[in-house]
Amino acid sequence: xLSLIFLFSFLITPINSxxxxxxxxxxxxxxxxxxxxxxxxxxxxxxxxxxxxxxMEIGKRDECIGVKLTKDLVIVEAGEEMLSQKTSGTSSxxxxxxxxxxxxxxxxxxxxxxWFSSDMKxxxxxxxxxxxxxxxxxxxxxxxxxxxxxSVCGLGxxxxxxxxxxxxxxxxxxxxxxxxxxxxxxxxxxxxSLYSVTGEVMSMAERYENWIVTKxxxxxxxxxxxxxxxxxxxxxxxxxPDWRDLLPTASVFFVNSNPFLDFPRQVLQKTVPIxxxxxxxxxxxxxxxSSDWVEILEKREKNVLISFxxxxxxxxxxxxxxxxxxxxxxxMPNVTFIWKYESDDTSFASHLQNLHFSKxxxxxxxLNDVRLNAFLSHGGLGSTMELAYSGKPAVMIxxxxxxxxxxxxxxxxxxxxxxxxSSMEDADSMKKAFEDILFNENYKKNALKLADILTNQPYSPxxxxxxxxxxxxxxxxxxxxxxxxxxxxxxxxxxLDIYAVFALFYVTVAIVSIVILRKIYxxxxxxxxxxxxxxxxxxxx
Length: 541
Description:
Number of domains: 2
Structural class: alpha/beta
Oligomer: single chain
Catalytic activity: glucuronate acceptor + UDP-alpha-D-glucuronate = acceptor beta-D-glucuronoside + UDP + H(+)
Radius of gyration: 30 Å
CATH topology of the largest domain: Rossmann fold
Strand content: 5-15%
Shape: globular
CATH superfamily of the largest domain: Glycogen Phosphorylase B
GO molecular function: glucuronosyltransferase activity
Family: Belongs to the UDP-glycosyltransferase family.
Protein name: glucuronosyltransferase
Number of helices: 21
CATH class of the largest domain: Alpha Beta
Helix content: 40-55%
Enzyme class: transferase
Number of strands: 13
CATH architecture of the largest domain: 3-Layer(aba) Sandwich
């Protein structure tokens, strides 16, 4: 008995509870779920966590409550001014419908980003104007704050509260717009940017597009940041620093990336990968399907799940693409297809006996079931992580934003087939992709190998979140981790100033040498001329 008590006392690590603010603006479920998972992880650890959720996109309020264990939830509702402005504006649903039909590249990226920046600026102003919320948060004396730098609204708020220990957390693999300001390098020659449509091997034109699309989006983001800074200075005080000075003060930068999955790139010491934090593999393996789903999976030997996520709806898919996909499904009567579809109006596919529609699917449980053979996914990072950990082969058809990068990221491991969204119009191409992913064992073998690596990696994302958060809480902030390199200009960073000095030196030496040689040659020529002339005169005499 005493030995058991000793064992448990050894296993239970004593902690000092930290008072933590997690700032999570409500605009997209994937971002909220990521930040909610961080909050719940720290709550489970025994810390006091406040989940502060200002509503940025009115229609997304309910689906963006990303916490389950954290009970201290503070929602900042949309005010009258925000409601009146939003009524006359464009909804995110309408924008998402546009993404089905359009490509996001350097020619239109700024325009396509406007809907997001408009929502964030309105929501930010509404949030900052709530003095009651500010005073309530001020009274809680937070030790530290965790926030996502997709906006600087919360960053200025945390500084005004007097919080010095900051952790940035990216629900994407990284944010291009932030890296330059924290001093982290990004090499566009081989690292796909967040909105890249290529892998790591790029042609000259692709490298240029990889760079220029990031530049265009960063201009739009920086404009949004500046507007948000005006907001927090107006309501919280003119002395709140510029966002450019606040970003590099973060002690740690959590990124939803995994070094065994993502494209290799250079990072700072304070950049900590926590990719897969939202994937609780032990919990997933315990999930059991209901009898209804079991019945569907047992109808045929092969089963495929189709889902395009929660932001871009299948109901808005162009009809010619939908028809092409339906035709491919019809050509494979021995395979059951389960399609997450947001409408009850599915009469267009009533003739297909091997297609099952559902407004909601138990995605994690299905991916864990051996009877599901493949997944057709849009490539959202949450689904991409679940897919990678599950070991299921997939066809990935990205629609917008970072989804193409996520698909390319998995493609390099050999477990998925990447296809452009317009490929769905071609039934034969879709049929071939389904046949390859279902019957070519190499895809399954590679997917299982990646899953094995991720499951058995030497550290877990959850451990990283807990250890680094507690380390910052107890010993932070860490101003010495701010690299001096971010203060260098382009010429200093790239050694162009040194190359220029060497080039000037060599050019000077070359010019001086040429001048000297010309003078020597000139003198020799003159001497030779007079020598010949002298000999000629003597002969004449």
